[in-house]
Design brief:
Elements: H1 2-22, E1 26-32, H2 38-44, E2 51-54, E3 59-65, H3 69-80, E4 86-91, H4 96-107
Antiparallel strand pairs: 1-3, 1-4, 2-3
C-alpha cells in the first residue's frame, strides 16, 4: 500500500498544493473497474483540468479540480451511466497524506488488486 500512497501523492502533489493554498475544492476518486476501456471512458468524461491516472489493471484515480463533494457525486452519477465500477471518493480537506491513506483504506474491501 505504501507504494500506491506514494504514487498518488506524487501524481496529485500540485493539485493538493493548489487546493490547500488557494482554498479551492478538490475531489479525489479511486475507481475499481474491470472494464478495459475504463481509462478511455474517464478521459472522455473529464475536463481538461482534471487528472486521470491508472494505478493498476483495475484501479484508477481521478483528481477533480475545483470540484466540491456535491459536484463530485454528480460526476459519479453521470459516469455510472457509462461504466460499471466501485469507488471511494471524497473532497480533499487537510493533510494530503492522511487523506490518501483514508481513501485507500476505505477502498480496500471493494475488490481492488493493489
Amino acid at each position: 500500500m505504501e507504494l500506491m500512497v506514494d504514487n498518488v501523492l506524487n501524481i496529485g502533489q500540485d493539485e493538493f498544493y493548489r487546493a490547500a493554498r488557494y482554498k479551492l475544492p478538490l475531489s479525489v476518486i479511486l475507481i475499481n473497474s474491470n472494464n478495459s476501456k475504463a481509462f478511455d471512458i474517464l478521459e472522455e468524461n473529464t475536463r481538461q483540468i482534471d487528472i486521470v491516472q491508472q494505478l493498476s489493471s483495475d484501479l484508477l484515480i481521478v483528481f477533480l479540480s475545483h470540484t466540491d463533494h456535491n459536484n463530485c457525486m454528480t460526476f459519479i452519477d453521470k459516469l455510472k451511466e457509462k461504466l460499471e465500477f466501485t469507488y471511494t471518493g471524497n473532497e480533499f480537506k487537510g493533510s494530503d497524506l492522511k487523506f490518501i491513506r483514508k481513501l485507500f483504506s476505505e477502498n480496500r474491501d471493494k475488490g481492488s488488486s493493489y
